[in-house]
């Protein structure tokens, strides 16, 4: 084999030699081909003025940004190489159905690094960690190699000989398809994105500030399933990328405790003295520190001003009449920071005019701004940017959409107009709207300070106390403005001058103190015993309770839009007020020369509020209270709602919803806003509540509770029996069944059919970490035997009643119901 192989090589060599190729000529130099010529200096590092020409437009800041024709260059100082920077990618502008302006898409810690004649952009991760003083630190570093996002050849050295800098062309970073700076993978899959269209993608602006660079770029993706403008077969979006310089020395962390609500971030710490890797979480918060010269004052209990205040600027675009109210909402938090030992910790200022400071910009990371947006979105939101290494909040821009006033008008009208003349109309006085704006401003600022929604706050107040002027003037409608305890729908006419909205409350002051008060002689994990004592001091007091926001309500004491400690009683008062509003809707929305659009809108708000009450009450059936505790606290974390309260909730639904709510059926309103639709509307919200009530998870909790607590529990059998008897009460009385009830009873049969045939739906992977629910294997549970038993019982009752009815439509309905039940119980007959 060796001989033959050598012979073949020799033959090939001879052949190549004859043809003129010099493959086997070790003693002769091969002629240089065009591609093998020495590299021209043309593509190497050039003189500065050959790259950044006299026509360049330059913007000095963290980096100097140069624009030459359509290309953008960064001039990166040597001092900023290897400095960590936070890049936040957001949607700036979007088409319908593709997120929203300001929506965060991605966050990365990045750093620029020199490697020979290239600058590398690396992505750093802080998901895993070990202190550099520990032996395991090396293993963490080795398993956390920083990927290179992109490499850039150095085009030129900076012209300033005193400070070294490197010029690179970054055009492709923002015009090519770099996923980290554009559309995330999950949206690409959803919209069936195939590729980026370079011809319809470009950089709009790059602006440099002392501590950040702001990039705006438009990306167009070819898409097989665009959510809007489908005829284009593409998606166009404008992205903003904020590249923010992180502090050289990270702020000291304060560690999270679920008993106090706080925005926090997690990190797997391999350096802990534990026999497993553990995730630690630490708070997002501003760096509030005591000045060295004020240490003694602070120790003596005096209020001191922090080294650096939290300052919010009011956008120049904000209408003059609303600025004072937004400012008041911001500075309302001063009293909360006083509990933490600081005075004037947070202040509001007007943004300087262009004449006062032509270089001032809301995009400068040094300034936090309440940005007033001319948008039809009826909302406001308070995002913030924080250092992932420490949780330090670096800046926050509150987005204030113009149409938030419409939302406030609707809420205030539907929740207070029965007792409040100021809310009776479609256009409020400036001082009334201003007070509502102040309330929303305070709520959104709370988010930017680190506080999430506290949906467990409002349950601290007994319902009857919300009718007490003295109590509400002192305490508002909830102990926390971070709850969705909007306006006082409980108070009734004749109750007097009750307070109608929440303010910065007891819980808010407590949470700010817990998160911000300096513990001077301790840091990091050393603070935990002190922080624990602050919590235990108020353990068991509902005024200091935190209840998280739920995606599916399991804990009925942590709901949105509710008030008081008894959802049934509070909703009864709320409905009594809605019954006072409906007859006055036409009068309170009237204006000569105007159509009935406002009447239609506010009638819809009445229906929406009514539907909320049904949801508040339904959550108590199969509900489980959750109160966070640690081992050193007595009592259970999870407690089922008492049986008598669940039974009361079922009676409420039968009386207020499943018995046709005739007070909502107002022909004087209908003949002005629609030619039809009321019948479907009533059926719709009855069916939604029925669907919510017969949720697999709720039924599973009722089964488990009855197994654990026996006769003391409200069982699924009891709930289903009471539901059937209430929905089909005409069968025993012999009454005719009206149209609304016939629709409801058919909806009930359809729901029972689903319970017999469907399985619990799967939660998409990307939502699993956000959705809380009880998982049930329906086919293996008691659900179907109970449903089958209820259908058999109902079948017997209908057969007994069908021939006793004198109403022809009622008989037809009952015969149809029998047939539907037969098909459920005998599915073979369906085929």
Instruction: Sketch the major β-sheet.
Output: 8 strands, antiparallel
Number of strands: 25
Number of helices: 25
Structural category is: alpha+beta
Radius of gyration equals: 34 Å
List the helices and strands and how they pair.
Blueprint: H1 2-18, H2 48-51, E1 57-59, E2 64-68, E3 71-77, E4 85-93, E5 104-115, E6 118-124, E7 128-129, H3 137-142, E8 148-153, E9 156-157, E10 165-169, H4 171-175, H5 185-191, E11 193-196, E12 202-208, E13 212-223, E14 234-245, E15 264-269, E16 278-283, H6 295-299, E17 310-314, H7 323-331, H8 334-339, E18 346-350, E19 368-373, E20 380-381, E21 385-386, E22 393-395, E23 397-401, H9 404-416, H10 430-448, H11 469-475, H12 506-516, H13 528-536, H14 567-581, H15 585-589, H16 597-618, E24 624-626, E25 638-640, H17 643-658, H18 667-673, H19 678-693, H20 696-709, H21 716-727, H22 730-733, H23 739-757, H24 783-802, H25 808-825
Parallel strand pairs: 7-15, 17-18, 17-19, 19-23
Antiparallel strand pairs: 1-2, 2-3, 3-10, 4-5, 4-14, 5-6, 6-8, 9-10, 11-13, 12-13, 13-14, 15-16, 20-23, 21-22, 24-25
Keywords, separated by commas or semicolons:
17% strand; 5-stranded antiparallel sheet; 831 residues; alpha+beta
Concise description?
By secondary structure, the protein is of the alpha+beta class. It is built from 25 helices and 25 strands.
């Amino acid at each position: 084999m060796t001989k033959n192989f050598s012979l073949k090589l020799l033959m090939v060599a001879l052949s190549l030699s004859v043809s003129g190729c010099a493959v086997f000529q070790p003693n002769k130099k091969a002629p240089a081909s065009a591609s093998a010529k020495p590299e021209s200096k043309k593509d190497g590092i050039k003189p500065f003025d050959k790259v950044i020409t006299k026509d360049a437009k330059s913007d000095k800041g963290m980096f100097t940004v140069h624009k030459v024709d359509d290309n953008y260059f960064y001039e990166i100082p040597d001092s900023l190489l290897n400095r960590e920077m936070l890049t936040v990618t957001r949607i700036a502008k979007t088409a319908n159905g593709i997120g929203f302006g300001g929506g965060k898409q991605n966050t990365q810690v990045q750093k620029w690094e020199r490697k020979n004649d290239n600058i590398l952009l690396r992505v750093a991760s802080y998901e895993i960690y070990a202190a550099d003083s520990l032996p395991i630190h090396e293993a963490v570093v080795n398993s956390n190699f920083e990927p290179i996002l992109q490499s850039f050849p150095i085009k030129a050295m900076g012209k300033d000989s005193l400070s070294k800098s490197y010029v690179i062309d970054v055009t492709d970073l923002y015009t090519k398809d770099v996923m980290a700076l554009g559309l995330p993978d999950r949206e690409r899959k959803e919209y069936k994105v195939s590729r980026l269209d370079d011809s319809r993608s470009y950089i709009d602006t790059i602006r440099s500030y002392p501590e950040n660079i702001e990039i705006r770029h438009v990306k167009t993706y070819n898409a097989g399933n665009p959510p809007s403008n489908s005829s284009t077969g593409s998606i166009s979006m404008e992205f903003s990328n904020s590249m923010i310089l992180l502090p050289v020395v990270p702020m000291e962390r304060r560690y999270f405790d679920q008993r106090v609500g706080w925005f926090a971030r997690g990190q797997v710490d391999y350096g802990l003295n534990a026999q497993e890797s553990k995730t630690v979480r630490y708070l997002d918060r501003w760096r509030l520190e005591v000045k060295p010269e004020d240490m003694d004052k602070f120790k003596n209990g005096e209020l001191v001003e922090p080294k650096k205040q939290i300052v919010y600027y009011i956008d120049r675009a904000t209408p003059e009449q609303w600025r004072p109210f937004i400012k008041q909402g911001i500075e309302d938090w001063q009293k909360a920071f006083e509990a933490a030992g600081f005075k004037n910790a947070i202040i509001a200022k007007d943004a300087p005019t262009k004449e006062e400071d032509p270089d001032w910009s809301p995009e400068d990371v040094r300034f936090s701004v309440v940005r007033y947006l001319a948008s039809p979105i009826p909302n406001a939101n308070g995002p913030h940017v924080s250092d992932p290494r420490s949780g330090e909040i670096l800046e926050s821009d509150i987005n204030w959409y113009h149409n938030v006033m419409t939302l406030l008008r609707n809420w205030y009208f539907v929740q207070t107009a029965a007792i409040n003349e100021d809310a009776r109309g479609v256009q409020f006085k400036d001082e009334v709207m201003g007070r509502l704006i102040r309330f929303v401003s305070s709520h959104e600022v709370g988010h930017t300070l680190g506080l999430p929604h506290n949906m467990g706050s409002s349950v601290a107040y007994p319902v009857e106390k919300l009718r007490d002027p003295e109590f509400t003037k002192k305490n508002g409608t909830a102990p926390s403005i971070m709850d969705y305890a909007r306006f006082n729908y409980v108070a009734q006419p004749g109750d007097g001058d009750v307070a109608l909205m929440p303010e910065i409350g007891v819980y808010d002051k407590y949470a700010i103190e817990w998160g911000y008060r300096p513990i001077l002689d301790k840091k990091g994990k050393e603070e935990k015993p002190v922080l624990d004592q602050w919590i235990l001091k108020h353990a068991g007091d509902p005024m200091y309770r935190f209840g998280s926001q739920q995606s599916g309500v399991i804990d009925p004491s942590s709901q949105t839009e509710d008030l008081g400690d008894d959802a049934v009683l509070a909703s009864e008062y709320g409905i009594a007020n809605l019954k006072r509003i409906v007859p006055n809707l036409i009068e309170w929305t009237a204006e000569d020369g105007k159509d009935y659009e406002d009447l239609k809108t506010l009638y819809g708000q009445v229906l929406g509020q009514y539907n909320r009450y049904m949801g508040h009450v339904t959550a108590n059936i199969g509900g489980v209270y959750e109160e966070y505790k640690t081992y050193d606290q007595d009592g259970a974390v999870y407690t089922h709602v008492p049986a008598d309260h669940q039974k009361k909730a079922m009676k409420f639904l039968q009386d207020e919803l499943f018995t046709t709510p005739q007070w909502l059926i107002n022909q004087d309103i209908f003949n002005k806003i629609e030619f039809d639709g009321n019948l479907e509307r009533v059926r719709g919200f009855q069916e939604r509540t029925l669907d919510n009530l017969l949720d697999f998870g709720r039924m599973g909790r009722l089964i488990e509770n009855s197994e654990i607590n026996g006769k003391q529990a409200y069982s699924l059998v009891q709930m289903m029996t009471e539901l059937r008897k209430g929905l089909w009460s005409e069968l025993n009385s012999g009454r005719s069944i009206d149209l609304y009830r016939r629709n409801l009873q058919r909806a009930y049969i359809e729901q029972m059919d689903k319970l017999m045939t469907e399985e619990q739906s799967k939660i998409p992977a990307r939502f699993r970490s956000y959705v809380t629910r009880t998982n049930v294997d329906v086919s293996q549970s008691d659900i179907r035997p109970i449903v089958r038993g209820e259908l058999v019982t109902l079948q017997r009752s209908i057969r007994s009643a069908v021939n006793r009815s004198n109403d022809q439509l009622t008989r037809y309905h009952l015969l149809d119901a029998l047939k539907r039940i037969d098909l459920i119980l005998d599915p073979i007959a369906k085929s």
